[in-house]
Amino acid sequence: MDNHFVPKLTRRALLISTPFVLAGCTTASRETVVTKPIVPAEYLAMYDAVDGEPYPVDAADLTRVDPAFLRREVAYNTPEPTGTIVVDTQARYLYLVGENGMALRYGIGVGKAGLEFSGEALVQYKRQWPRWTPTQDMIAREPERYGPLASGMEPGPLNPLGPRALYLFKNGVDTLYRIHGTTEDWTIGKAVSSGCIRLLNQDIIDLYRRVPPKTRVIVLQGPASGYGV
Asked: Domains in the chain, please, with CATH?
């Protein structure tokens, strides 16, 4: 990858948002109305199974994800330059700042209260299908769950980091926080992880190819002046 690559967000390169609609089916009796989301074709393609990977990347179950958190290009007001990642933990969005006041927006899951990272960091390096090792704090909090994994977990479809991970450092020191994938589709838009920033696997694969190492990352824990749609 060219480390000088700067993402240019264009309508030809991106799939633009389309709202979900609902289809209902009822009988003549007093049975409960059943509603089933109809997923637009462009989203089915965007979040379909990914071929060419060393491990399976299944299609995302979009019936478990609020459509507001699916990838799309949006207008975004920010003082940050093109190529910066801005993570709005309160809104549950990650923005990749583009040109002309636009950004590529991804839905995210964030850390539980008290476990979140905030401030500025750099993507020190990136990994495809990374190993995962729980932190000492995680092992101390839940030794029965994480103790057996103290030596690490091999890459694969069950690895919590998913198919890609961006490693965040601050002042040259590993923050132990990552931007990574997840197969737990239902967690997107929620605060459930141990502090890391998680995206659908298709989204982290997309983000991974757009950002080089040393990309600036701004993590906001609340409203900040100058940032917003």
From this structure: 21-220 (2.40.440.10)
Question: Which residues participate in catalysis according to the annotation?
Answer: 180, 196
What is the distance in angstroms between the CA of the first residue and the CA of the last residue of the chain? Answer: 30
Alpha-carbon distance of 86 to 211, in angstroms, equals 12
Between 116 and 46, the higher pLDDT residue: 46
Contacts of 71 (CB under 8 A, 6+ apart): 14, 15, 46, 104, 105, 106, 107, 202, 203, 206
The structure's pTM equals: 0.81
pLDDT one-digit tens code per residue, 61-97: 999 999 999 999 999 999 999 999 999 999 999 999 9
Write out the E strands in the chain. Answer: 21-25, 34-38, 72-75, 85-88, 93-97, 102-107, 110-111, 119-128, 164-170, 173-182, 191-193, 197-200, 216-220
Which among 36-40, 126-130, 139-143, 191-195 has the top mean pLDDT?
126-130
